[in-house]
Write a structure and sequence with these properties.
By secondary structure, this protein is an all-alpha fold. The chain is 78% helix and 0% strand. It contains two helices and no strands. The longest helix is centred in the last third of the chain and has 26 residues. It starts with a helix and ends with a helix.
């Protein structure tokens, strides 16, 4: 049961990262528009790596 909570949390990080990349998505007050692209890509990569790592170590 608790493994699903972690997977959903990392999937949510990927969704938020996708929203940061879209032109009308989330706006970062501190970073500006270029920071949104950078933080969006970092969020997607971090979420994907965490999900893969979680699946590998669960075996």
């Amino acid at each position: 049961m608790y493994r699903w909570v972690g997977l959903v949390a990392w999937a949510w990080v990927i969704v938020i990262g996708g929203l940061m990349i879209t032109p009308g998505g989330v706006h970062c007050i501190v970073c500006g528009d270029k920071g949104n692209l950078f933080m969006g890509v970092i969020s997607i990569v971090l979420g994907a790596v965490a999900i893969v790592t979680n699946k590998v170590f669960a075996r």
